[in-house]
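Per reviewer request, we include the raw input and output of the structure prediction for the construct analysed in the revised manuscript.
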Amino acid sequence: MTALRVLISTSSFGAADAAPLSRLELEGVEVSLNPFGRVLTEDEVAGLLGDVDGLIAGTERLSERVLAQAPRLRVISRVGVGVEKIDLDAAERRGVRVLTTPDALTDAVAELTLGAMLSLLRGLHRMNADMHAGAWEKHMGQLLRGKTVGIVGLGRIGRAVALLLAPFGVRCIARDAEPDHVWAEAHGVEFMPLGKLLGEADIVTIHASGRERLFGADELALMRPGALLLNAARGTLVDEEALYDALVDGRLGGCYVDAFSVEPYDGPLRELPNALLTPHIGSYAREARARMELEAVDNLLLALKDGSA
Protein backbone atom coordinates (compact mmCIF):
# COMPACT_ATOMS: atom_id res chain seq x y z
CA MET A 1 0.00 0.00 0.00
CA THR A 2 1.34 3.41 -0.97
CA ALA A 3 2.12 5.66 2.00
CA LEU A 4 0.11 8.84 2.42
CA ARG A 5 2.06 11.92 1.38
CA VAL A 6 1.53 15.20 3.21
CA LEU A 7 2.93 18.69 2.69
CA ILE A 8 3.24 20.97 5.71
CA SER A 9 3.32 24.50 4.31
CA THR A 10 3.24 26.49 7.55
CA SER A 11 6.80 27.58 8.25
CA SER A 12 7.07 27.06 12.02
CA PHE A 13 5.38 23.67 12.31
CA GLY A 14 6.81 21.60 15.16
CA ALA A 15 8.70 24.50 16.75
CA ALA A 16 6.44 24.58 19.81
CA ASP A 17 6.20 20.81 20.26
CA ALA A 18 7.51 17.83 18.28
CA ALA A 19 4.41 15.74 19.02
CA PRO A 20 2.49 16.64 15.82
CA LEU A 21 5.39 15.55 13.61
CA SER A 22 5.85 12.42 15.69
CA ARG A 23 2.16 11.57 15.23
CA LEU A 24 2.57 11.71 11.44
CA GLU A 25 5.74 9.61 11.61
CA LEU A 26 4.03 6.95 13.72
CA GLU A 27 1.23 6.74 11.16
CA GLY A 28 3.75 6.11 8.38
CA VAL A 29 3.00 9.35 6.57
CA GLU A 30 5.62 10.74 4.19
CA VAL A 31 6.04 14.39 5.19
CA SER A 32 7.45 17.28 3.17
CA LEU A 33 8.18 20.53 5.01
CA ASN A 34 8.15 24.13 3.84
CA PRO A 35 11.70 24.61 2.48
CA PHE A 36 11.60 28.42 2.51
CA GLY A 37 10.93 29.19 6.19
CA ARG A 38 8.25 31.79 5.35
CA VAL A 39 4.78 32.10 3.85
CA LEU A 40 4.82 30.44 0.44
CA THR A 41 3.89 32.23 -2.76
CA GLU A 42 1.25 30.71 -5.02
CA ASP A 43 3.89 29.41 -7.42
CA GLU A 44 5.91 27.88 -4.60
CA VAL A 45 3.01 26.04 -3.01
CA ALA A 46 1.76 24.88 -6.42
CA GLY A 47 5.18 23.41 -7.12
CA LEU A 48 5.13 21.45 -3.86
CA LEU A 49 1.57 20.07 -4.07
CA GLY A 50 1.87 17.91 -7.17
CA ASP A 51 1.93 14.47 -5.55
CA VAL A 52 0.51 14.96 -2.05
CA ASP A 53 -2.68 13.55 -0.56
CA GLY A 54 -3.01 16.11 2.22
CA LEU A 55 -1.90 19.63 3.05
CA ILE A 56 -1.39 21.02 6.54
CA ALA A 57 -1.79 24.66 5.61
CA GLY A 58 -0.65 27.98 6.96
CA THR A 59 -1.71 31.38 5.62
CA GLU A 60 -0.55 30.97 2.02
CA ARG A 61 -3.02 31.63 -0.78
CA LEU A 62 -4.62 28.48 -2.16
CA SER A 63 -6.31 29.69 -5.31
CA GLU A 64 -8.04 27.65 -8.01
CA ARG A 65 -4.82 27.84 -10.04
CA VAL A 66 -2.85 26.35 -7.15
CA LEU A 67 -5.36 23.59 -6.46
CA ALA A 68 -5.36 22.64 -10.14
CA GLN A 69 -1.73 21.60 -9.71
CA ALA A 70 -2.65 19.07 -7.00
CA PRO A 71 -4.51 16.16 -8.62
CA ARG A 72 -4.07 13.85 -5.60
CA LEU A 73 -5.00 16.40 -2.93
CA ARG A 74 -7.95 15.26 -0.80
CA VAL A 75 -7.69 17.31 2.41
CA ILE A 76 -6.54 20.79 3.43
CA SER A 77 -6.13 20.91 7.20
CA ARG A 78 -5.61 24.51 8.26
CA VAL A 79 -3.50 25.32 11.33
CA GLY A 80 -5.85 28.03 12.53
CA VAL A 81 -9.36 29.16 11.76
CA GLY A 82 -9.14 31.59 8.83
CA VAL A 83 -9.99 30.25 5.37
CA GLU A 84 -10.20 33.55 3.51
CA LYS A 85 -7.12 32.69 1.42
CA ILE A 86 -8.53 29.35 0.30
CA ASP A 87 -10.76 29.19 -2.77
CA LEU A 88 -13.48 27.14 -1.08
CA ASP A 89 -15.58 26.81 -4.24
CA ALA A 90 -12.61 25.42 -6.16
CA ALA A 91 -11.84 23.02 -3.32
CA GLU A 92 -15.42 21.77 -3.28
CA ARG A 93 -15.45 21.26 -7.04
CA ARG A 94 -12.29 19.18 -6.75
CA GLY A 95 -13.62 17.14 -3.83
CA VAL A 96 -11.06 18.57 -1.39
CA ARG A 97 -12.20 18.84 2.23
CA VAL A 98 -11.15 21.97 4.15
CA LEU A 99 -10.79 21.63 7.92
CA THR A 100 -9.78 24.11 10.64
CA THR A 101 -8.81 24.24 14.33
CA PRO A 102 -11.25 26.86 15.65
CA ASP A 103 -10.93 26.26 19.39
CA ALA A 104 -7.20 25.92 19.93
CA LEU A 105 -6.23 29.56 19.41
CA THR A 106 -9.08 31.18 21.38
CA ASP A 107 -7.22 31.80 24.63
CA ALA A 108 -4.05 32.90 22.85
CA VAL A 109 -5.79 35.62 20.82
CA ALA A 110 -7.96 36.73 23.74
CA GLU A 111 -4.99 37.11 26.09
CA LEU A 112 -2.98 38.91 23.41
CA THR A 113 -5.87 41.33 22.95
CA LEU A 114 -6.05 42.07 26.68
CA GLY A 115 -2.29 42.60 26.81
CA ALA A 116 -2.38 44.98 23.86
CA MET A 117 -5.30 46.86 25.42
CA LEU A 118 -3.38 47.41 28.65
CA SER A 119 -0.23 48.40 26.77
CA LEU A 120 -2.09 51.00 24.74
CA LEU A 121 -3.81 52.44 27.80
CA ARG A 122 -0.59 52.77 29.80
CA GLY A 123 1.77 53.48 26.89
CA LEU A 124 4.01 50.55 27.77
CA HIS A 125 5.23 50.05 24.21
CA ARG A 126 6.15 53.72 23.87
CA MET A 127 8.03 53.88 27.15
CA ASN A 128 9.80 50.61 26.43
CA ALA A 129 11.08 52.09 23.15
CA ASP A 130 12.13 55.27 24.99
CA MET A 131 14.05 53.32 27.62
CA HIS A 132 15.88 51.24 25.01
CA ALA A 133 16.79 54.49 23.25
CA GLY A 134 18.27 55.88 26.47
CA ALA A 135 15.41 58.24 27.32
CA TRP A 136 13.70 58.48 30.72
CA GLU A 137 10.31 59.93 29.88
CA LYS A 138 7.01 59.23 31.59
CA HIS A 139 3.77 59.16 29.63
CA MET A 140 0.51 59.57 31.53
CA GLY A 141 -1.75 56.60 30.92
CA GLN A 142 -5.33 55.52 31.62
CA LEU A 143 -7.05 52.76 33.56
CA LEU A 144 -8.99 49.98 31.92
CA ARG A 145 -11.35 49.89 34.89
CA GLY A 146 -14.58 51.73 34.19
CA LYS A 147 -14.10 51.92 30.42
CA THR A 148 -16.72 50.92 27.84
CA VAL A 149 -15.33 48.21 25.56
CA GLY A 150 -17.01 47.44 22.24
CA ILE A 151 -16.48 43.91 20.94
CA VAL A 152 -17.16 43.54 17.23
CA GLY A 153 -17.73 39.83 16.72
CA LEU A 154 -18.89 37.93 19.80
CA GLY A 155 -17.88 34.45 18.72
CA ARG A 156 -15.38 32.19 20.48
CA ILE A 157 -12.64 34.80 20.78
CA GLY A 158 -14.93 37.76 21.41
CA ARG A 159 -16.56 35.88 24.26
CA ALA A 160 -13.19 34.93 25.72
CA VAL A 161 -12.18 38.60 25.65
CA ALA A 162 -15.40 39.56 27.43
CA LEU A 163 -14.71 37.01 30.17
CA LEU A 164 -11.14 38.28 30.63
CA LEU A 165 -12.45 41.83 30.93
CA ALA A 166 -15.01 41.00 33.62
CA PRO A 167 -12.67 41.50 36.64
CA PHE A 168 -11.81 45.02 35.40
CA GLY A 169 -15.33 46.31 35.91
CA VAL A 170 -15.75 47.45 32.33
CA ARG A 171 -19.01 47.88 30.47
CA CYS A 172 -19.07 45.44 27.55
CA ILE A 173 -21.11 46.22 24.46
CA ALA A 174 -21.07 44.13 21.30
CA ARG A 175 -22.11 43.78 17.70
CA ASP A 176 -22.45 40.38 16.07
CA ALA A 177 -24.00 39.17 12.83
CA GLU A 178 -25.75 36.33 14.69
CA PRO A 179 -26.14 37.56 18.27
CA ASP A 180 -26.53 35.00 21.05
CA HIS A 181 -28.72 36.97 23.42
CA VAL A 182 -28.84 34.21 26.03
CA TRP A 183 -25.04 34.17 26.44
CA ALA A 184 -24.81 37.95 26.33
CA GLU A 185 -27.46 38.47 29.00
CA ALA A 186 -25.83 35.87 31.26
CA HIS A 187 -22.50 37.72 31.03
CA GLY A 188 -23.68 41.31 31.10
CA VAL A 189 -22.97 42.13 27.45
CA GLU A 190 -25.31 44.46 25.57
CA PHE A 191 -25.81 44.08 21.81
CA MET A 192 -26.27 47.16 19.62
CA PRO A 193 -25.77 48.27 16.00
CA LEU A 194 -22.21 49.04 14.95
CA GLY A 195 -22.78 52.79 14.61
CA LYS A 196 -24.16 53.09 18.14
CA LEU A 197 -21.36 50.92 19.54
CA LEU A 198 -18.69 53.11 17.91
CA GLY A 199 -20.21 56.21 19.45
CA GLU A 200 -20.22 54.76 22.96
CA ALA A 201 -17.04 52.68 23.23
CA ASP A 202 -13.75 53.96 24.64
CA ILE A 203 -12.07 50.87 23.21
CA VAL A 204 -13.17 48.85 20.18
CA THR A 205 -11.73 45.37 19.62
CA ILE A 206 -12.45 43.43 16.44
CA HIS A 207 -13.01 39.68 16.46
CA ALA A 208 -15.24 39.27 13.42
CA SER A 209 -14.71 36.39 11.02
CA GLY A 210 -15.93 37.85 7.73
CA ARG A 211 -13.95 39.18 4.82
CA GLU A 212 -15.84 42.40 4.12
CA ARG A 213 -14.42 45.70 5.33
CA LEU A 214 -16.14 46.88 8.49
CA PHE A 215 -13.98 49.89 9.34
CA GLY A 216 -13.44 52.54 6.70
CA ALA A 217 -13.18 56.30 7.06
CA ASP A 218 -16.90 56.67 7.77
CA GLU A 219 -16.89 54.13 10.60
CA LEU A 220 -13.70 55.51 12.13
CA ALA A 221 -15.29 58.97 12.14
CA LEU A 222 -18.10 57.61 14.32
CA MET A 223 -15.69 56.53 17.05
CA ARG A 224 -15.32 58.62 20.19
CA PRO A 225 -12.46 61.16 20.17
CA GLY A 226 -9.37 59.52 21.59
CA ALA A 227 -10.81 55.99 21.38
CA LEU A 228 -8.61 52.95 20.82
CA LEU A 229 -9.07 50.41 18.01
CA LEU A 230 -7.68 46.86 18.17
CA ASN A 231 -7.65 44.37 15.29
CA ALA A 232 -6.36 40.87 15.97
CA ALA A 233 -8.84 39.31 13.53
CA ARG A 234 -8.56 39.94 9.76
CA GLY A 235 -6.51 42.56 7.95
CA THR A 236 -9.27 43.03 5.39
CA LEU A 237 -11.67 44.33 8.03
CA VAL A 238 -9.93 47.69 8.48
CA ASP A 239 -8.94 50.34 5.94
CA GLU A 240 -5.33 50.85 7.03
CA GLU A 241 -4.96 54.17 5.21
CA ALA A 242 -8.06 55.57 6.91
CA LEU A 243 -6.78 54.27 10.24
CA TYR A 244 -3.47 56.04 9.68
CA ASP A 245 -5.26 59.30 8.91
CA ALA A 246 -7.42 58.99 12.03
CA LEU A 247 -4.35 58.48 14.20
CA VAL A 248 -2.35 61.30 12.61
CA ASP A 249 -5.10 63.89 12.99
CA GLY A 250 -5.72 62.85 16.59
CA ARG A 251 -9.27 61.57 16.22
CA LEU A 252 -8.17 58.19 17.59
CA GLY A 253 -5.89 57.82 20.58
CA GLY A 254 -4.13 54.68 19.41
CA CYS A 255 -4.44 51.32 17.73
CA TYR A 256 -3.23 47.75 17.96
CA VAL A 257 -2.95 45.74 14.74
CA ASP A 258 -1.88 42.09 14.47
CA ALA A 259 -3.50 41.26 11.11
CA PHE A 260 -2.82 43.26 7.97
CA SER A 261 -4.30 43.41 4.48
CA VAL A 262 -0.87 42.59 2.99
CA GLU A 263 1.72 40.70 4.99
CA PRO A 264 4.54 41.27 5.79
CA TYR A 265 3.32 44.80 6.48
CA ASP A 266 5.57 47.73 5.54
CA GLY A 267 3.09 50.62 5.56
CA PRO A 268 3.00 53.99 7.31
CA LEU A 269 1.48 52.79 10.59
CA ARG A 270 5.04 51.80 11.51
CA GLU A 271 5.89 55.50 11.79
CA LEU A 272 3.37 56.24 14.54
CA PRO A 273 4.23 55.90 18.24
CA ASN A 274 0.58 55.36 19.13
CA ALA A 275 0.31 52.35 16.80
CA LEU A 276 1.19 49.06 18.49
CA LEU A 277 1.97 46.49 15.79
CA THR A 278 2.80 42.79 15.87
CA PRO A 279 3.52 40.38 12.96
CA HIS A 280 0.33 38.28 13.03
CA ILE A 281 1.18 36.44 16.26
CA GLY A 282 -2.35 35.76 17.53
CA SER A 283 -1.75 32.01 17.85
CA TYR A 284 1.93 32.27 18.80
CA ALA A 285 1.67 31.06 22.36
CA ARG A 286 3.53 27.79 22.81
CA GLU A 287 0.62 25.92 24.36
CA ALA A 288 -1.89 27.14 21.80
CA ARG A 289 0.40 26.51 18.85
CA ALA A 290 1.12 22.94 19.94
CA ARG A 291 -2.59 22.24 20.36
CA MET A 292 -3.45 23.77 16.97
CA GLU A 293 -0.83 21.70 15.16
CA LEU A 294 -1.85 18.48 16.88
CA GLU A 295 -5.51 19.12 16.06
CA ALA A 296 -4.59 19.88 12.44
CA VAL A 297 -2.76 16.54 12.23
CA ASP A 298 -5.65 14.66 13.83
CA ASN A 299 -8.15 16.33 11.49
CA LEU A 300 -6.04 15.43 8.48
CA LEU A 301 -5.48 11.78 9.43
CA LEU A 302 -9.12 11.22 10.31
CA ALA A 303 -10.35 12.71 7.03
CA LEU A 304 -7.85 10.76 4.94
CA LYS A 305 -8.55 7.46 6.64
CA ASP A 306 -12.31 7.50 7.17
CA GLY A 307 -13.05 7.46 3.47
CA SER A 308 -14.75 10.85 3.49
CA ALA A 309 -11.90 12.54 1.68
